[in-house]
Write a structure and sequence with these properties.
The structure is a single chain. With 302 residues, the chain is α/β, with parallel strands linked by helices. It has two domains: 239 residues, Aldolase class I (TIM Barrel, Alpha-Beta Barrel); 53 residues, Alpha-Beta Plaits (2-Layer Sandwich), CATH 3.30.70. Helices cover 27% and strands 21% of the residues. The protein is built from eight helices and 13 strands. It has a nine-stranded mixed beta sheet with strand order 7-1-2-8-9-10-11-12-13. The protein has a two-stranded antiparallel sheet with strand order 3-6.
Length: 302
């Protein structure tokens, strides 16, 4: 939609993904489909009706909508989201909030005003982080609101796969205080298998930002996903390459998050693990840090 962006969450009082207390805006829509995605609700670029069974009181109000998407059978509500014609009708008619839209459209001025309300919390170095999904999937809107926030002196951060046009990144960089860029998998075939896309554009864009005037505003990240991104060869090759592009590069290893699996109960996607692995231990993380430091990384974010 022209001059609008689809957002699936606005999360306040975060202390991650940038300095200080942050408000994080999660954009909907992503060109990647990582099998371990931590925010699967942000993959599809459309609004969707979601059913929360724990909130349902089986009142039957939703069955009054005659599109055939909902019916009650054996004391259970059955939702066929593919038949929903207007998600807003269900959200309006459901008294318990069991049927809710998973996202909302915002205009730039509207979202800016919402974010300005949190400025008192940003006095000691906080700000706004744009995440997703993929912020640059809705690039025009993202750049527009970055410019608005910089005009009113709000610190900005963006989390991105960098799977986008280099012109988009160049246009956005002057308005980003911290760019968190993912370098997930070095081997291109494996990258395609696990994310759905080649890493060629991603690597070109990472090289570009690390050789730009804004390179000290960039943090490269690798999410540690068991059996997917976690092996010594992958971490070593990523570390070697990015340190060759910029010896002072900041590199962060993100520990596996076992909480993401619960989100897939409401999704049409399958999670990559049947048995959910645990977090990596402190000693295991230290072992990973040694691999990347031996490969040339001098600025490890821990």
């Amino acid at each position: 939609m022209k001059n609008k962006a689809l957002v699936f969450d606005i999360r306040r009082f975060s202390t991650h993904d940038g300095v200080g207390i942050r408000t994080t805006v999660f954009f909907k829509g992503c060109p990647l489909h990582c099998v371990w995605c931590q925010n699967p609700e942000g993959i599809a670029p459309q609004t969707k009706l979601v059913y929360f069974a724990n909130s349902c009181i089986l009142c039957g109000c939703c069955t009054q909508i005659k599109d055939g998407a909902v019916h009650i059978e054996n004391d259970k509500l059955i939702l066929d989201s593919s038949r929903v014609k207007n998600t807003g009708d269900y959200e309006y008619i459901c008294p318990s909030g069991a049927l809710r839209m998973d996202s909302k459209w915002y205009e730039p001025d509207e979202l800016t005003e919402i974010l300005k309300r949190d400025m008192p919390f940003f006095k000691h170095g906080g700000g706004v982080t744009f995440s997703g999904g993929e912020p640059f999937y809705q690039a025009k809107f993202t750049i527009s609101i970055l410019k608005r926030l910089k005009k009113i002196k709000i610190n900005t951060a963006v989390e991105s796969s960098l799977f986008t046009d280099s012109k988009t990144i160049k246009a956005a960089l002057p308005f980003i205080d911290t760019l968190f860029a993912d370098f997930k998998i070095y081997n291109d075939t494996q990258h395609k298998n696990f994310t759905g896309v080649s890493n060629k554009i991603i690597r070109e864009n990472i090289k570009m930002v690390l050789q730009s005037l804004y390179r000290d505003n960039v943090v490269i990240r690798t999410p540690l996903i068991p059996m997917h991104t976690v092996n010594a060869d992958n971490l070593r090759k990523i570390a070697k390459e990015i340190s060759e592009w910029y010896p002072g590069v900041r590199y962060e290893l993100l520990n596996y998050n076992p909480l993401a699996k619960a989100k897939y109960d409401h999704m049409d996607y399958d999670y990559c693990f049947a048995d959910n692995p645990p977090l990596y231990t402190k000693q295991q993380m230290e072992d990973f840090y040694k691999i990347i430091e031996d490969a040339g990384i001098v600025n490890v974010i821990k």
